[in-house]
Amino acid sequence: MRSTEFTGTHAVAAFDASEGRGSIKNAFRFAFATSWRTSRWGTIGVLFLPVLAGLFPLFVAVVLRELINELDGVADRSRLAVLVVLSFVIAYLLSFITPLRRVLDLTNDERLEQALRVKLLEKTDAIDFAYFEQPKARDRIDEAFERPGSAVAGVLTHSATAVSATTTVASLVVLLGSIDPWLLVLLPPVGIPYIAHRWWLTKVRFSRMRTQRRAQRWATHFTEALIDERRLPESRLLNLGPLFRQRVDDNLGAVVRESRAMFVRELVASLVFGALVLVIIYLSLWRVVGQAASDLVTLGDVAIFAGAVGAVRTAIDQLVLAIGRVRWDLLGTVTIGAVLGLTDTYQDPDSSALVHQTEDMQTAPSNGYPSDAPLQVENVTFTYPGAQDPALHGVNLTIAAGEVVGLVGANGSGKTTLAKLITGLYRPQQGQVRLNGRPTTTLDRVALRNEVACVFQQYGAYEGTAAENLALGDWERLIEDRAAIEQLAAQVGVDAIADKLPSGLDTALGKAFGEVQLSGGQEQRFAIGRAFARVAPIMLLDEPTANLDADTEYEVFQDFTALAQGRATLLISHRFSTLALADRIVVLDDGRIAEQGSHEDLLRHEGLYRRMYDRARRSR
Predict the structure, then answer these.
(1) What is the rounded distance in angstroms from the CA atom of residue 293 to the CA atom of residue 308?
(2) Count H helices, E strands: the chain?
(3) DSSP state for residue 510 in the 8-state scheme
(4) pTM of the model
(5) 566: phi then psi, degrees, rounded to nearest 5
(6) Of 87, 153, 291, 475, which has the fewest CB atoms closer than 10 Å, so is most exposed?
(7) 554 pLDDT band (50/70/90 cuts)?
């Protein structure tokens, strides 16, 4: 844990995705295709209306010039009336287009937010669990979920705004150039470099934003440590407030300092450009005024020139701002596309542990257990991405139907890693995990869920009613079946907890939307209940009673014994009273199986299990 993680010296690479011209072009295509699928007419409106609105300043300027010229000579009332009506029509259409654009933009934004968030959730539900444990990948996933609709909609909206501003600038400059041609010569050499600078500066800001994200995550971590009710007692007793406040200040201070430098650079460029443009425009205006004094141009030309120069300056500012926003949204869209384009299987480019294998290499000793056992772990080796040493090495384990196998070992011995391999969260780099004869690498999410029910150490705590919390264990079947939920609550002993809640199973749980926050032990009882909601042939329990007192633990295992009948069960625990209930105990040591047997046999053997058992007894 560092006091500050952010240095601001380099940007983080995003999923090996290049951010060159190819990815930018693909981002344009992706944004248009996604918006088109969401709403064709909405996409047409978002793109077309700004371009149309960009021509209105030209129409206004031309009409105004004709109106002034008409007044400067012998006025024709009918012509004046036509010009006034025409200016009214233009003003009305512009007043109508502006709110219509806003409605279309907001509607398109919300549609895309809905569509992309669902699409991103579908993708993150399919990719390997390992992605979420890699900080760089997790940063990109978090980035993709930050208002994806705004990013993709912004590509279209701000592109259309840029085209609109370009149309306004080009049409007015051509009009003004017809009065003073020197304006056509002097403006482009100033405007084009500034636009290019703004395009580059936006990319730099986006890259710096990515480096700042890690510092912001640290700041959030330290903040939550001081305000989360579960961590608050310890942080208060340890007086962590001054230390963590300083670390929040260090991280966010680094972000502020670098952001300030970027803002100053942007301000200086804007001031220099603005000064140059104003000098060019007003020098040109001076030339036009002199020409008017010599009757070389009309009074209407002078009036329109004086009025249009401000519109040109405003339109150039809008153009530069829109181009910066387009670049920002394009880079965000590139990230969204990168997440959606992730391969479901995580590949670690730095890992040297990947072993290419064939089916012949995936066999393992049977150890006297039936080959059709529900759970077979065959010569499994697994190394975490970026690690050098395997977390598991050559592990073989078979559990027959109706057998309860306990798994024990020191912290870091590989117990939870093995559990995640069995549940398909990880894929073995050597060997196979077979569930009822089928390798986990060939099973989809639904098939895996049908084969294995589990309770992890880090169990979920879900906002919703107590009944919904139980039903999530098999939501397709239970979510609308109140009788089945009540039956499950009685089977797993959750009904006793529900009876003490204000509205029973209808009580809303959770600190965000609920009325009751369960204790850790009560939440764990609900997690165990969800695991038993489905009649899966394999049961995996990773420290299922860690938060339970001794009496409650005894009650749970009485229920467990009945509910686990006929299932292949792997029980991971440090409690020897719990392990003693297993038919067989497997001891893991440094990623390898050190010994296995019954509780009594292992105590007589006086190996690692006996030493762990004796240490546990002495520590009581």
Answers:
(1) 20
(2) 20, 12
(3) S
(4) 0.71
(5) 80, -5
(6) 475
(7) low
